[in-house]
Amino acid sequence: MSLDLVFQYLLSPTFFHGAAMTLLITVSSLVFGLLAGFVLALVNQVKFLPVRLIAVFYLWLFRGTPVLFQIIFIYNVLPTFGIRLTAFASGVIALSLNEGAYMAEIIRSGLQAIKSGQRTAGMALGMTKLMVMRYVVLPQAARIMLPPIGNQTIGMLKTSALVSVIAVEELLLVANQTASATFRYFEALSAAGIYYLALTTIFMAGQYWMERSLEPKRSRAPKRSVLSILLQPAAENN
How many CB atoms within 10 Å of residue 181? Predict the structure, then answer.
């Protein structure tokens, strides 16, 4: 065990590039997953049955099959239909489609949590449906949806490691290749673990900041340190 080697890996361009690739995959998949989930959540509210059945089929398909299967399927099967994608694009598409199925349920539950009376009141004031959604529903639903979306973001960060099976040079693949070449598995995987923990900490702090900014009474809420945020789940379990 060599802590100096762990520190050397942490500062190496190869590991930094792998961590940057992991972050890029996570953010890209999350953004496209949110867009897909929002569209699916709106489609689920359409009264036209055939359209709703398409949304139900999508949810059934992408929640019912493993995300690893979806990554391999898109990467290997699409080229047989003349659709050639890079490994990175295949991974992001697969993760985005899978994430969209889960985001759709989060967004749907958040939108349905807002009472219909508030929508009716907005319409009575002369607001269009789009304005009601923009100024009445979404600001309130965002406070409900943000915690589970934050959990999905952290989950996506860890799930992104699965794209290593199609040779995307993200953090886990870089660590595994380095360890295989040097047989220093502890040092290489420890460096990757530190990067994962650092990124997770950043996401958790960002989630807390966003939750606080959306809280109407945030000025009365006591300020908390990042350490207290990280220790909160453990305290709640005791």
Answer: 9
Ordered by where they begin, the domains of the chain are 3-237 (1.10.3720.10)
Give SS3 for 92. Answer: helix
pLDDT in tens, 137-169: 888 888 888 889 989 999 999 999 999 999 999
* Cα(183)–Cα(185) distance, integer angstroms: 6
39-80: pLDDT as tens digits: 998 888 788 888 889 999 999 999 999 999 999 999 999 999
In the structure, how many helices (H) and strands (E) does the chain have? Answer: 11, 0
Structure tokens, 231 = 């220790």
> Which one, of 139, 137, 131, lies nearest residue 112 by Cα?
137
Altogether, the residues listed in the chain come to a count of 238
Cα–Cα distance, 119 to 39 (Å, whole number): 19
The pTM is what? 0.83
- Asked if residue 54 lies in contact with residue 43, where contact means CB atoms within 8 angstroms, the answer is yes
